[in-house]
Structure formats: C-alpha cells, structure tokens
C-alpha cells in the first residue's frame, strides 16, 4: 500500500500519541567503550535518556499489536542541525506498542523544526494489503 493510498477513514489509526523530547540520531546514539577488556558499542547518554523518557510517555497496549503495521511519525527538532532519524523511536516502541519493530512494513517520516517544543508525533495503523 503506497502512502498516497493510505486513508485513515478506511484503515483507522490504532494508536496516536506524542512523546516530548528530541531523539538521538543513529550517528550520535552509540559510543565506544571497553567492558572487561572487550570493545563494545553502547547507547550514548543522550540515547539512553531519550529511551527512558520515551518509556514514561509511551502508552502500553495490552495485548501488544502483532499485525503488520504502517507508522507515520512527525519529528520536531530544536535545531536545523539534526538528521531525520526515526530508528530509536521504532526501537523504543518495542514492548509497549508492538512485539517487534520488524512488524513495521511501511512508514512515513517527516522532519520539522520547533525550537521550543521538540517532540515526536506518532500514529500507527494496521497495514492492510489490498
């Protein structure tokens, strides 16, 4: 199903919510550390803080969605320097909205600027292939 054919009146949103804060981009969400003498990449402090804040704000569905999904996300950043990157948001919704982010088969993601109120506006619908 192409985004041009997506009609929420036919395929209603299963969940809609807003998460305050600015997500860490993939390029900036990992840091290199040594743990017990082994090299590891772990989430950056900004990414860890965002995932924690996301968990407090994200609704928890019971049961979790198990179908194929279409996700629409509008990410509002506080500066023009940020890259559009929804991957941390998709990861953070696992266990709250759906069982696994592999269920997302189609997505529409947009970049916005709001210096005073960075946030992610998230809508999820079942992906129905016609």
Structural description of this entry:
With 130 residues, this protein is α+β, with helices and mostly antiparallel strands. It has a single domain, classed as Holliday junction resolvase RusA (60s Ribosomal Protein L30, Chain: A, 2-Layer Sandwich). Helix content is 15%, strand content 36%. The chain has helices at 45-57, 87-92, and strands spanning 13-20, 30-35, 38-43, 69-77, 104-113, 119-126. The strands form 2 sheets. It has a 4-stranded mixed beta sheet, with helices on one face. The model has no long low-confidence stretch (mean pLDDT 86).
Topology:
Elements: E1 13-20, E2 30-35, E3 38-43, H1 45-57, E4 69-77, H2 87-92, E5 104-113, E6 119-126
Parallel strand pairs: 4-5
Antiparallel strand pairs: 1-6, 2-3, 4-6
Uncertain spans, ≥5 residues at pLDDT below 50? none
The total count of strands amounts to 6
Q: In one word, what is the shape? A: globular
Which CATH architecture would you pick? 2-Layer Sandwich
Structural class: alpha+beta
Helix content: 10-25%
Overall average pLDDT: 86
| Radius of gyration based on Cα positions | 16 Å
**Name of the CATH homologous superfamily:** Holliday junction resolvase RusA
Number of domains: 1
Tally of individual helices: 2
Reported for the largest beta sheet, the result is: 4 strands, mixed
Q: Strand share of the residues?
A: 35-45%
CATH topology term = 60s Ribosomal Protein L30, Chain: A
Sequence of secondary-structure elements: EEEHEHEE
Strand order of the largest sheet: 1-6-4-5
The quaternary state of the protein chains shown equals single chain
The span between the termini is 7 Å
Instruction: Specify the CATH class.
Output: Alpha Beta
């Amino acid at each position: 199903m192409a985004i041009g054919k997506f009609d929420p009146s036919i395929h209603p949103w299963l969940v809609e919510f807003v998460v305050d804060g600015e997500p860490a981009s993939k390029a900036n969400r990992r840091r290199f550390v040594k743990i017990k003498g082994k090299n590891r990449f772990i989430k950056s402090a900004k990414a860890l803080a965002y995932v924690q804040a996301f968990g407090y704000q994200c609704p928890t569905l019971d049961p979790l969605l198990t179908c194929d999904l279409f996700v629409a996300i509008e990410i509002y950043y506080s500066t023009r320097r940020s890259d559009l990157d929804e991957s941390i948001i998709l990861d953070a919704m696992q266990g709250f909205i759906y069982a696994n982010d592999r269920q997302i088969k189609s997505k529409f993601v947009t970049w916005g600027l709001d210096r005073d109120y960075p946030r992610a506006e998230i809508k999820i619908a079942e992906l129905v292939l016609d």
